[in-house]
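Supplementary Methods, section 5.1.

A reviewer requested that the exact input to the structure prediction be made available. We therefore reproduce it here, unchanged from the version used in the analyses.
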Amino acid sequence: MPIRARMRLPMWRTLLTAALAALLATLLAPGAAHTAPRTPTAYDKAKESRPVYSYADAIRESVWVDTRIDGDEDGRTDRVAVDIVRPREPARHGREIPVIMDASPYYACCGRGNESQKKTYDAAGNPVQLPLYYDNYFVPRGYGYVAVDLTGTSRSDGCVDVGGRSDIQSAKAVVDWLNGRARAYTSRTGAERARATWSNGRTGMIGKSYDGTVANGVAATGVEGLETIVPIGAISSWYDYYFAKGAPLFNSGPDGLSNGIESPEARARCGRVQQRLVEGAPRSGDWTPLWTARDYVPDADEVRASVFAVHGLQDLNVRMKHFGQWWDALGDAGVQRKLWLSQAGHVDPFDFRRADWVRTLHRWFDHELLGYRNGVDREPMADIERAPDRWTTDRVWPPRATDTVTLRPAKGTAPGVGALGTRRGEGTETFTDDRRLGETDWASAIDTPTPAKAGFTTRPLARDLRLSGSSKVTVTVTPSARTAHLSAVLVDVGPDTIRDYAASGEGITTLPTRSCWGASTDGDSACFKDTGARTKDVDYTIFSRGWADLGNHADDHRGRPLTPGEPVTITLDLAASDHVVPKGHRLALIVGGTDRNLITAPADTPTLTVDLARTFARLPLVGGDKALTTAPHATVPRESRLDGVAPARPLNPRPGGRTS
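The structure derived from this sequence is encoded token-by-token as follows.
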């Protein structure tokens, strides 16, 4: 089924927003301590927080928040380092302010942002530079900014547990502290208490990848005081980061990631936690209790915060499945939502749509944390990038006219070069897994008989066809061996100019010039390298993918050996997408084996025979079954090889910076 579009604005949020707007308009304005309350003009789009506070004079401090758990089993509860930048002026008058938080494991090991910035400190240990622009831009506008080192990283106690209880409690405890429900100290081991008397408790979490994943996990606890989250390219279920229905997506598990981001001190004391990660995440791809504890989707109905989600439609690190299932679950729970979907890969919107992003994020935080009635919640739910730097909007997403349509493969005039339509096919197609090839090899030879894939295309379309949501492909296949992996991809066959998501910048190029976003100090510049779209002219575009271990045909969560010669049926969950196949192009479905560098190969090299009569795709088409119209007499170009992006590069399982 396609992702369902629902949004409910609970009555308590509406009433709370109106009340806070009146209060905060008074409290946060300079010199307004004795001014009568004034409610901002309803949906006044010009109403926004202004940079009226001194960034140079801001308070910069560090505290250590007690997580109330002992993850490293040393007999004392773990404390996490929390670096804070907040305007000095509100505190002088006893005014409380909201907080923007980025909780990350990467502040010391790997850096954040396009320039891999790390935290820096002065001789007294106070923060000088916090990565990215959040503090530079928002602190002068009356927000506190908090950067949390997750347990086991940088200056924090404990061990990294890759999305588990310790990771989530690291950040949740900080939200609790900001709301007066947890303890913090002025040092890592001392007894002097630190209190967040300057905070009004209203917190918004933001971050890309691992950082956004933690925001998802904290929101799923339902913690009071977390008003909004902005997850960018974030994981919603850690099993789906490492496996696709039993098929391994990487050559290592969460223990490898943990070892790469833990501080040297933590690595020396966290051997038992590492071993539990190894034992709890077997490379078989079977679901275990470890994965249950790291799956946030079932707890979407606990989310109290609003969600502004951002994801790259071509993100091959944290793949679009994470966004799709989280978005769907949040909709079912009635959570207020907003989204941006770009053509890029694993890229922050600051690097593909900078000015619009900062403006929108500013208005979002003003609305959710300051209570300004600026109308951002009444604007279209979705911004979708249709072509490099060309965006459209949708009032709801997926559009209300979206419906699931079943398309079926049929034999063509040559082996492996078939048709795709609404009529049921007959016969079989056969291919042999070739672990040296992947989706770009298959798609470039869509009109050519090749032994490693079975491809099926529609006739050229008579009008544009939009797919919006999640697709499923059900395949009945007979394997020749005891192990087999299966891939299914959807392809837009036709010329286009797209972001080159397969290049090193994943759709962007970094320029030598800089632009400034907020205030600077000697140690923390608000000026960042500019970026531009990196594009490529292509003959086809792969826009959705799904994979599975065929041994998981009877159980999504547990595999079993296949019986050679015995047919099995399995459904592949393709990643959520939003793509328009233009008039004159063709829609293609390709079924193959190992998708090189995107899933790992099975133990055997199977030949797979596809039963076309029992194979079909269920696709979310805007306009339903009437949307697919083809031009039966149009000429279909036949080329020996089509040009597309480069094959997928080997990816390291590190959901943070660039994938490489």
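The chain has a mean pLDDT of 92. These observations are discussed further in the main text.
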